[in-house]
């Protein structure tokens, strides 16, 4: 049983023991969309069986300008990254495919709402009060620490020192250690009491659940200080993770940069329902930047302050089991599921199961949730995610917001552990309800019942003429109290009235709190009421995608290096999302190649296939190696033979094999490969292989 | 000569008279990208010759959810808009076409840099100090006015009152007046002295050029008060238009939301140059949101606080006349040019001219600028902009930043007047230079000269051994003074040295400010220096697109209403950017239509053609009318005949004509129309017309 599972288990136990956790569990749920870096360490291997060497990969990503830290020439700002040309194109291709796969395929209503959001909206949604982390300040140095991270680091370091003192082998993640050393002083080799070890282990297990006061108590109790200077720290204070600003020239309209795109969609619900001609269910979708002012961002693209999200809000009738009309199409999709009970039992063993079965046995709450899980997997596989490094993990009860029915995360396995990249939650009617209550806007569906609803109920009739003179100024209060009587009570009172000719009703603030009403004033009868319109607040199923995290994980999944030369990295993006589809390589800078290159490039462009010419003076081999790192799947070489007979060689990035054929055949093959109609194997079978130059 | 031209003329004169304007002209240039609503009133007509009725159009745009004010259920926030499904799709299609037309066509290096920007970067760029407007506060009511707008409104209102008092006819823009009335009290009919009228006219003419002090003096001099309450106002203070926030948990890193995407591109220059294998020229590009905290946003999408920009930074060698390798391809493109001299002469008459000629005669400064003007026009026409409502206006000298060489705006004619939608400026080496000077980062190009440069120059040699003992602590100062001598002075001193055996050099702070050096200490000779590397800071040509403004103007350009029924609006978007390409309309809800609809929709989707089914119970005519307003160019009707023989009718939005043919023929026609290979006229000629139902 690995450690994180023990933690989770303890956490769960703790949650059950202490119902007061309900609040911090909501709090945790607010953060859930942000970050869930499962620290499970496991050696990650490439598809060729090599160990993923993160530092080589990071160097490639930087060298080829996929993304780099922002504002580097000004010293940088942590948690902010810029995408260079290949990263930007990769991101655009992922977004484009996302839009086709979800929005167009299902006629979703895409909206683009503003990032600037006034205070009141996020106050209502709960973000102003709950979207926060706890931080501690060193009053002397001014340094700021995220309280839970600090406690975690210090106690882990002490436990490590204890293990060393006991002469136990300490498994070390070297890179992590190297980073830590910059922050934390050398681990002290000090043996701890067994009881202290147990206490520390328990604290670490519960670390996600402490509130500020509790973290402060831990810091005092265990004398936790600034690890670098040993200086004492101030007690933890809440730090809201939203970037605050002020809208307009007067300072009376505080606002924030949105922490998620969801709120903008909820506020537009009414207009969207009308646009959809009042038809339910429907989904809205939004692709855009969101912002979180992390206290101490780390782990590269996985925890950043400004990031691209793609979110779907699928609005569904809460009655009728949340069926989905297209569930049939996906029901045989096999998913790798890590369910709540398995986690509780202390295991992380996933189970292969069709989504049809998972919904049937109630493991996944409903068809709509299940439908999206399957669609999420289809999308991730399409862009090139390695299926063996994808799992769906069900949230534990205490991870979810109190209102959520069920929640699954699509997690991707990377060198940082299992990373939450897509969350798929049932947000119930929570958001629409709070905004409706706050503003009075009818964020509801009103539909004519196919059959009017006939309701048998106890109705109370007051004789208003006699009522007023009798109760005078208290009339309204008494009337309201009577109207508020439950059906149950009405039934009982009807009997009283029949038997005694009078009833007694509790009315706060009138007389002694009890009021007597006789037959003259009141009648209670069972009658039928007919309801023609049904009004309800839809529930929301929300698949929420962190595009940056998916992009980073994808790069790790498609990365490998040539077995014959480890320095030569390759990114095997599927053609559909590769930043550039085709590299055009003239043998040299010779003028006779230019018209051919121009014709090829313009023909490819007209076919909508992105391509680049590399006519630098480097050898053909070097130029291809560079583009293997950029993930360009295809290469066309233009040589002197091409000038003579308009034949070209076409090279496959992954196998480095080449074929040679006429211009038309080559272009047709490129199109067919990019569209996914044929594989390289198909092409190799039908076009003659070429085994000439790829001079290194 | 219309009034705005008089104003411009006066402004220009003012600028020439008063060189102190240079600063406010920089200031104005900083704002130039933001807003330039030319108030020239002119009746705008649709392509069918109808007057554009803005209120009908606004109602359509709102009804069909192209865009609506954000946070409406919370009372709204001015200057913020949400795009609904058709607006969002229109925006995505415009951006997609932009990317193809510019980025892919020219191998530009697209980047995606962060919106959050630390203080120091925007301090260096000049935005912290200069990107501001002047505002006045009413201390009693707390209301805030943009100072220049307030002076303008009040003086214009007084001039109007004067005209009425003189019995002159006042031309009234009713809508503008209606809006004003809400803010300004009833115009007082008061006759003014002729001298006062002249003074007011002059002030209005110069209104863009006053700084805060001057605006304050005007407010005092003319006793300008809060128009609603007549209360006095505080003096104007500068209000920076950037949204401020704080990055990270400590408050020591102030930051802003970027006001333009350009800075992020400049900061990445060095990495991009390396990515481009040191080859010049090249362009970077970026599509993303920018932010401006307008004091009082108005004019709908034309002046907003959060907006989508698409910017290109084309880096070019300042030497060699800024030629462009592809200028030849565009040189015959005819543009409608409104040049600086024509504006100076008091006219707004545009001239049709090929860009080749404009560059040749020096009207447009260089080929690169000219190339982009032509490409901008091609882009705007592709998305459906009416060529007769497009002009390129050259900036007046005082509109440009002090460093700019030339600047042209693509302006679109709308019901708000001529609107600047694309700016195309030569920013020279300004931005790269200031960031280089601030950070020391080598934002330069270093290239090996094809031929080494041999420079004859006067070199000074000091005998360091004797120099030190002689000047002791002053050695460094004297040495620096000698090194700093100009070539001219060196030549003169060489002669002195030869003639007198000694020279006298000015050295501030040493002795009496003059130092004598003899032949023992110094030698000055003419020698040759050989320079192998050339280092230069590239100039930047910047086409900058306001996507929201283009989108709004486009909607006005393609809007018209059916002559036989003015209530039926039509948006004639070209198929390539229409939000939805095809509407599928079953005759009724009959079950037999469903399989046909499913087959059509999935075939269209596979061909990448967006489509929607409208199976609501409204009549076919009503359903088509709704989609005419959404700008859907094509409609396919599925009727009982379709069930029998798989033939369908295809309807053209603009003519409402229909043809009927087999499924394959219809789908092929749709593809051909959407791809722009055929026009509706072509289709009508080859497929049989259908004149059956379009029941209203």
From TrEMBL, chains A, B:
Q: Where is the Aminoacyl-transfer RNA synthetases class-II family profile domain?
A: 230-563
Q: Which family does it belong to?
A: Belongs to the class-II aminoacyl-tRNA synthetase family.
The protein's job, in short, is:
Catalyzes the ATP-dependent ligation of glycine to the 3'-end of its cognate tRNA, via the formation of an aminoacyl-adenylate intermediate (Gly-AMP). Also produces diadenosine tetraphosphate (Ap4A), a universal pleiotropic signaling molecule needed for cell regulation pathways, by direct condensation of 2 ATPs. Thereby, may play a special role in Ap4A homeostasis.
Task: Name the source organism.
Answer: Byssochlamys spectabilis
A molecular function (GO) held by this record is: ATP binding
Tell me the InterPro entries matching this sequence: aa-tRNA-synt_IIb (IPR002314), aa-tRNA-synth_II (IPR006195), aa-tRNA-synth_II/BPL/LPL (IPR045864), Anticodon-bd (IPR004154), Anticodon-bd_dom_sf (IPR036621), Gly-tRNA_synthase/POLG2 (IPR027031), GlyRS-like_core (IPR033731), tRNA-synt_gly (IPR002315)
Quaternary data: Homodimer.
Q: Does the keyword S-adenosyl-L-methionine belong to this entry?
A: no
From the Swiss-Prot or TrEMBL record, give the protein name. glycine--tRNA ligase
* KW Iron-sulfur (keyword) present: no
Source domain of life is Eukaryota
Q: Pfam families from the xrefs? A: HGTP_anticodon, tRNA-synt_2b
């Amino acid at each position: 049983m690995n450690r994180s599972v023990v933690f989770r288990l303890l956490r769960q136990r703790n949650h059950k023991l202490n119902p007061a956790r309900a609040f911090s569990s909501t709090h945790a749920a607010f953060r859930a969309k942000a970050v869930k870096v499962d620290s499970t360490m496991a050696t990650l291997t490439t598809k060729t069986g090599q160990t993923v060497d993160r530092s080589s990969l990071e160097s490639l990503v930087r060298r080829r300008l996929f993304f780099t830290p922002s504002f580097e020439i000004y010293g940088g700002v942590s948690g902010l990254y810029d995408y260079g040309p290949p990263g930007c194109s990769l991101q655009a291709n992922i977004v484009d495919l996302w839009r086709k796969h979800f929005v167009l395929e299902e006629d979703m209503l895409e909206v683009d709402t503003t990032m600037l959001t006034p205070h009141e909206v996020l106050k209502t949604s709960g973000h102003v009060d709950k979207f926060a982390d706890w931080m501690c300040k060193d009053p002397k140095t001014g340094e700021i620490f995220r309280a839970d991270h600090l406690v975690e680091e210090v106690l882990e370091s002490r436990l490590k020192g204890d293990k060393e003192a006991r002469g136990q082998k300490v498994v070390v993640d070297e890179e992590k250690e190297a980073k830590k050393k910059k922050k934390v002083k050398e681990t002290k080799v000090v043996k701890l009491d067994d009881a202290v070890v147990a206490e520390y282990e328990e604290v670490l297990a519960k670390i996600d659940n402490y509130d500020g006061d509790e973290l402060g108590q831990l810091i005092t109790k265990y004398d936790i200080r600034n690890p670098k200077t040993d200086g004492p720290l101030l007690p933890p204070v809440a730090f809201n993770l939203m970037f605050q600003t002020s809208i307009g020239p007067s300072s009376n309209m505080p606002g924030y940069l949105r922490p998620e795109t969801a709120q903008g969609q909820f506020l537009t619900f009414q207009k969207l329902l009308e646009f959809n001609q009042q038809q339910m269910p429907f989904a809205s979708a939004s692709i855009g930047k969101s912002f979180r002012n992390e206290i101490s961002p780390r782990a590269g693209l996985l925890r950043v302050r400004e990031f691209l999200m793609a979110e779907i809000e699928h609005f569904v009738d809460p009655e009728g089991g949340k069926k989905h009309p297209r569930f049939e199409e996906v029901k045989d999709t096999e998913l790798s599921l890590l369910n709540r009970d398995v986690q509780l039992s202390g295991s992380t063993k996933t189970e292969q199961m069709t989504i049809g079965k998972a919904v049937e046995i109630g493991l996944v709450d409903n068809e709509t949730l299940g439908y999206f899980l399957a669609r999420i997997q289809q999308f991730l596989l399409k862009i090139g995610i390695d299926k063996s490094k994808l799992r769906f993990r069900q949230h534990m009860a205490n991870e979810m917001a109190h209102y959520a029915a069920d929640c699954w995360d699509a997690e991707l396995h990377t060198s940082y552990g299992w990373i939450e990249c897509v969350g798929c939650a049932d947000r119930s009617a929570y958001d629409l309800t709070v905004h409706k209550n706050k503003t009075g806007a009818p964020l509801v569906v009103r539909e004519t019942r196919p059959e009017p609803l006939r309701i048998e109920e106890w109705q109370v009739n007051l004789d208003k003429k006699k009522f007023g003179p009798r109760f005078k100024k208290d009339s309204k209060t008494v009337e309201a109290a009577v109207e508020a009587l439950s059906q149950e009570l009405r039934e009982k009172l009807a009997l009283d009235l029949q038997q005694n000719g009078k009833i007694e009703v509790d009315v706060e603030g009138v007389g002694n709190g009890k009021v007597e009403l006789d037959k003259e004033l009141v009648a209670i009868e069972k009658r039928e009421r007919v309801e023609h319109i049904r009004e309800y607040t839809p529930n929301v199923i929300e698949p929420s995608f962190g595009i940056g995290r998916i992009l980073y994980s994808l790069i790790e999944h498609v990365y490998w290096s040539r077995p014959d030369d480890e320095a030569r990295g390759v990114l095997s993006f599927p053609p559909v999302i590769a930043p550039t589809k085709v590299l055009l390589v003239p043998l040299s800078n010779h003028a006779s190649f230019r018209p051919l290159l121009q014709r090829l490039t313009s023909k490819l462009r007209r076919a909508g296939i992105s391509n680049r010419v590399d006519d630098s003076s480097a050898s053909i081999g070097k130029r291809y190696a560079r583009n293997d790192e950029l993930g360009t799947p295809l290469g066309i070489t233009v040589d002197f033979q091409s000038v003579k007979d308009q034949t070209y060689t076409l090279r496959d990035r992954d196998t480095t094999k080449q074929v040679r054929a006429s211009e038309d055949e080559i272009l047709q093959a490129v199109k067919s490969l990019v569209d996914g109609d044929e594989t390289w194997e198909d092409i190799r079978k039908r076009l003659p292989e070429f085994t000439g130059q790829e001079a290194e």
